[in-house]
Amino acid sequence: MIVGIGVDVVDLARFERAVTRTPRLVARLFTAEERGLPLRSLAGRFAAKEALIKALGGSDGVRWQEMTVRNGVQGEPVFVTSGETAGRVRGRGITRIHVSMSHDAGVATAFVVAEGER
Questions:
Q1: What secondary structure, in 3-state letters, does 14-76 show?
Q2: Rounded to 5 degrees, what are φ and ψ at 67?
Q3: Is residue 8 marked as binding?
Q4: 6-50, pLDDT tens digit by residue?
Q5: Which of 31, 51, 104, 111: CA 20 to 30 A from 11?
Q6: Are 97 and 68 in contact (CB under 8 A)?
Q7: What are the boundaries of each domain within the chain?
Q8: Does residue 66 have a known ligand-binding role?
């Protein structure tokens, strides 16, 4: 059963300006594992995290550092959550998080489907 869905779009130029203007933003929004990635990959991961927050129904109990987007076995994006964020996911009865990301024409986009039991 689908528990929640979320989508987000990030303008790459605007994201780059924000990161340039506020370098601490990268450390605040991304885990150590994610930080070395190219800017467009970070923008996609930011969109994915925002989409997950929407799928969860809001940001209460969600921490940026407790959401990591990794590459799965076949290179597909996979969410890993920990701490309070993982508790929020479990609390909503979510057993699987599907995520898709794309980059094109100056934007990064992500779509999340949260699946589980109610």
A1: HHHHHHHHCCHHHHHHCCCCCCCCCHHHHHHHHHHHHHHHHHHCCCCCCCHHHEEEEECCCCC
A2: -125, 120
A3: yes
A4: 999 999 999 999 999 998 999 999 999 999 999 999 999 999 999
A5: 31
A6: no
A7: 2-116
A8: no
Query: How far, in Å, CA of 54 to CA of 56, rounded?
Result: 5
Q: How many CA atoms lie within 13 A of 42 on its CB side?
A: 23
Tokens of 63: 């921490």
Residue 35: both structure tokens together? 């930080």
Give me the mean pLDDT over the 95-112 stretch.
Answer: 96
Structure tokens at 61: 């109990």
**Hey, which CATH number is domain 2-116, 3.40.50.2300, 2.60.40.10, 3.20.20.70, 3.90.470.20?**
3.90.470.20
Calculate the alpha carbon distances from 81 to 51, 53, 90 in Å.
Answer: 14, 12, 10
Q: Assess whether pLDDT exceeds 80 at residue 118.
A: no
Q: Which two tokens stand for residue 78?
A: 């996979």
